[in-house]
């Protein structure tokens, strides 16, 4: 039984819009619709848990019915931070399914360009390596800055990757790691799930090759790029 935790509980401060970015409409649908559809269509995903603010529960109930998104197992309540929302989603999984034979893909609802191929590769690598993160090689030269704003180091680009979602793990592994993080009260600076699994379960994630198109809507200019790729997908 493979799960997807689809995160839709953020406020999108960096986007600066009144509506949280995952509900902004592009080509007739809110962004969140596109990733929900991709997970619904993946033959490797059995159940989807959406994590959202209660204000959007009716929106989800509506599209689940309209588009027959019958893999949606539940809608969990979003937390204050991304990691709280992830744990809220994980907490909905029944004990009987908590085994590393089952994998859980954690996905940002603000990444609408995830594909069934990316999902397939993530599931395969999570089963093979226990932990996988979708990633692309950094294309730009990356500098490390000092506090005064001067570039002081240039890490070797060959070892730098931009990390995306899905982030995929054996179910027991990821749930145990999250529990340990809360027990230790060490949540400072946690921006993704691979960090939690590495620090609290000692398992490093395999970098699963993803696509440069799988971008996250973070700031307003991302929306034009996403619209361009989504419209291309429609005509391909
Ligand atoms: N408390 C939170 C915070 C984030 N997310 C989700 O996690 C994903 C990635 O987070 P990010 O891009 O940081 O979203 P926001 O927190 O909404 O953005 P910002 O940091 O600009 O406020 C998004 O799909 C977002 O909806 C969530 O479910 N619950
Ligand atoms: C998980 C993530 O999408 C990986 O790139 C990211 O860390 C989400 O949060 P951020 O605040 O945009 O870093």
From TrEMBL:
Enzyme Commission number(s) from the entry: 2.7.7.60
Positions MEP for the nucleophilic attack, annotated site positions: 157, 216
Keywords for the protein's UniProt record, in alphabetical order: Isoprene biosynthesis, Nucleotidyltransferase, Transferase
Protein name in UniProt: 2-C-methyl-D-erythritol 4-phosphate cytidylyltransferase
Catalytic activity: 2-C-methyl-D-erythritol 4-phosphate + CTP + H(+) = 4-CDP-2-C-methyl-D-erythritol + diphosphate
Short name of any one Pfam family annotated for the protein: IspD
Matches recorded under HAMAP family: IspD
Family annotation (PANTHER family): 2-C-METHYL-D-ERYTHRITOL 4-PHOSPHATE CYTIDYLYLTRANSFERASE, CHLOROPLASTIC (PTHR32125)
Site residues, Transition state stabilizer: 14, 21
Record NCBIfam families: ispD, PRK00155.1-3
Record flagged with keyword Nucleotidyltransferase: yes
Function field: Catalyzes the formation of 4-diphosphocytidyl-2-C-methyl-D-erythritol from CTP and 2-C-methyl-D-erythritol 4-phosphate (MEP).
Enzyme class label: transferase
A molecular-function term among this protein's GO annotations: 2-C-methyl-D-erythritol 4-phosphate cytidylyltransferase activity
Pathways per UniProt: Isoprenoid biosynthesis; isopentenyl diphosphate biosynthesis via DXP pathway; isopentenyl diphosphate from 1-deoxy-D-xylulose 5-phosphate: step 2/6
Gene: ispD
Gene Ontology terms: biological process: isopentenyl diphosphate biosynthetic process, methylerythritol 4-phosphate pathway
Entry similarity comment: Belongs to the IspD/TarI cytidylyltransferase family. IspD subfamily.
């Amino acid at each position: 039984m493979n799960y997807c935790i689809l995160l839709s509980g953020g406020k999108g401060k960096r986007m600066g819009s009144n509506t949280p970015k995952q509900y902004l409409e592009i080509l007739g649908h809110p962004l969140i619709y596109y990733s929900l559809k991709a997970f619904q269509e993946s033959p490797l995903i059995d159940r989807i848990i959406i994590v959202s603010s209660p204000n959007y529960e009716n929106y989800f109930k509506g599209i689940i019915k309209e588009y027959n998104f019958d893999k949606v197992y539940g809608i969990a309540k979003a937390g204050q931070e991304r990691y709280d929302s992830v744990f809220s989603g994980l907490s909905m999984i029944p004990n009987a399914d908590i085994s590393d034979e089952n994998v859980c893909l954690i996905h940002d609802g603000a990444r609408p360009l995830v594909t069934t191929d990316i999902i397939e590769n993530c599931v395969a690598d999570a089963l093979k390596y226990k932990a996988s993160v979708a990633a692309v090689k950094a294309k730009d030269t990356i500098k490390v800055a000092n506090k005064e704003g001067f570039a002081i180091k240039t890490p070797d680009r060959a070892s730098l990757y931009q990390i995306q979602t899905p982030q995929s793990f054996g179910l027991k592994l990821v749930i145990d790691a999250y529990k340990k993080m809360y027990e230790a009260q060490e949540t400072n600076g946690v921006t993704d799930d691979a960090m939690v699994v590495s620090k609290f379960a000692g398992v490093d994630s395999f970098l699963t090759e993803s696509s440069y198109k799988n971008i996250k809507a973070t700031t307003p200019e991302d929306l034009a790029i996403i619209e361009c790729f989504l419209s291309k997908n429609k005509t391909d």
